[in-house]
Amino acid sequence: MNKYTERLINGLIKENPTFVLMLGMCPTLAVTTSAMNGLGMGLSTTLVLVFSNLLISLFRKVIPDGVRMPAFIVIVASLVTVVEFLMKAYTPDLAVQLGVYIPLIVVNCIILGRAESYASKNPVLPSIFDGIGMGLGFTFGLTSIGIIREILGAGQIFGAQILSLEWFTPVTIFVMAPGAFLVLAFLVAIMNIVREKMDAKGKPLAAPSGCLTGDCASCSQSAMCTGKKSE
Amino acid sequence: MSDLYNVSSSPHVRSKDTSSRIMLYVILALLPTTCFGIWNFGYRALILILVTIASCVASEWVFEKIVHKKSTINDFSAVVTGLLLALNLPATLPWWEAVIGGVFAIVIVKMMFGGLGQNFMNPALGARCFLLIAFAADMVKFEIDAYTGATPLAAMRNNEAVNTMDMLIGKTAGTIGETSAIAILIGAVILILFGVIDLKIPGTYIVTFVIFILIFGGRGFDPQYITAQLCGGGLMLGAFFMATDYVTSPITPIGKILFGICLGVLTGVFRMYGANAEGVSFAIILSNLLVPMIEKITVPRAFGLVKEGKKHE
User: Fold this and answer.
1) CA of B130 to nearest chain A CA: how many angstroms apart?
2) A122 found inside a domain
3) From the centroid of its chain, how far is CA B221?
């Protein structure tokens, strides 16, 4: 496996931002009321993520270390503004549905997290693939939560009625806030079972990767890292 | 490991009280309310109660089988949860919604957090609130004698006259177990006589609520209105049977009083200013969440210890 496909798999499964890293919880819980919203949110975040990784990786040698955070934010915010205008122009319905959560992509932890821990330390091409992988992982997470919530809460998938309302009573709690927490908790639990099974088989899913500094004390992933230095 | 190795240091208190014994007392105390509910709402109430209890017990048994734990259905706590949940449902609720409620109460509220003694909120009320949000239309459809009507609380909210005597006896619309204040009070007396509960929590709850109604109810001192507020909705059932749940109420004496005050104020706020006429179940599960904090600030001082600040006098 070359390092590009490795990056893709890493984002989709090993370090899935929704189910493993638990990043970007705010849009995950708030906009996944339907599969379409989840997909739209995921794809727009992916777009921002790919381009922010690309730009930050390009400029990584000229951004002074002391002001890297403001620099990253400026880059991300410009990209988000572009995406917001694009969505308002071409997918106005979705833009209304997602509302304030589109501008809020600026402060999405996944984007800043990838910028800080990967793009600012790696060459351009792997950074792009890292962005694609992470973005698709996020899209996958949001869409699957959205699908489950939409089926249970409205009997629909992507707006199409699949469960007839003649015999199906929509469980409205699933399209409301508590439903997001319930569905996320169950999906994370399932993911943890899968990871445990893989660990038992000797094929750990969460192999230490993205560890660049070796400084476990200040690493945000320290709690779930399996390759920690024993001190 | 045998239980013998788990003995703590002395002194030891010998007591006949076991979980199952206390649960049996609670079931006994709930019998008047249950019987009245069945008499008031007919066979549908009986079916709903049986279905809910069966769903609770079955889901506890199945969950413990799946996670390879010792079955705990013999302590009757699942039966009590099922019975309490059923008493909090309208008799017209479709049976499968009650089954979902039972599964939610046991699996998600109770077992996921570690089983009896570990749940962070009252399982029956957690499930009731889940159903209230999930199936809002079915949960507020109250029917009595084949006539769908507003509950007395909703009627009072619209400034309609209510018959306080009917509310005391229980011949009104509402959930299966909440309508009859008298039947609930008989059960409460049984609980107090057997020493299962003391009056601290229900007492402060009701007193605080009455004071709140006096100040913010907008009717001044109107005995008829206050009695109607007390007998209407789930207040009595909640105060004596759910707020006093050992697991989700404070253990310290001052904590119990604080807990009662929280309940009274929250119920008053929900009833006076909330979107619905009723707010007892939300008040109780919200206060359940405050219990760890209440206990933290009300730990009694151990004998012989001096208060922190006084040490260096």
Assistant:
1) 7
2) yes
3) 28
